[in-house]
Amino acid sequence: MTLKEIYIVGTPHIRLDQGSDTFKESYEKYIEESSIIIQKIAHYSPDLITIEWDMRESLRLKKEFKQIINQQLPHLLNEHHFIAMPLAHRLGLSEVLPIDFNQMQTRKIRASFADEYLENADEKLYQYMNNAKNEHQLSKNQPTTLYEKLTEHKEGPIPLEQVFAIRSLADSPGIAFALEWSERNHIMATNIIKAALNHERTIVFTGMSHVRFLEFIIESTGLFKVIPSQDILK
């Protein structure tokens, strides 16, 4: 049986507000950098594009996808306005599929409880977690291009994965956090799998901390060939 292909691309988060003083400069920079990525991915002719976007906001996604097609800009822009939506338009796809169910407030509360628990119960683990948090912030502030961030190869976990994994060790509060994080990834993986079964080649754009989790779940079904983004972007 020929396996269907899924490419999971871990993208850095972008947040741009048209009201910002630096909007024009940042917008032009991201447009230039994303054009290289779009060109390389378009070469593989994916017939489905899925993104880390809350399914409850699907109407907003459709509206903003139309705006991008018509060369209009939403007031607030994220990474999907620069890569996934223009790519879908270039390929002649009629939609970009949202796959996320993001319970951010619940996760923040559980993270806070777990962090407080570690601070009081295990000073060493708490310090390890804070070191990983600092590394995560430093990596976000590195002056690298979008293309460099998407193609850099890193053995082992990224700092944000370390934060989540160490936080999950905080006994009951940690398990509560881990269950929410795991559920979110499983929901995304399920949505990807069900949609991708009807397509030959699927692209997934998601935050970098989800990539290895999604790869494992999707590959474990034995239904897909999961291809690292580095292989299609190099």
From TrEMBL:
This is DUF5694 domain-containing protein. It comes from the Bacteria.
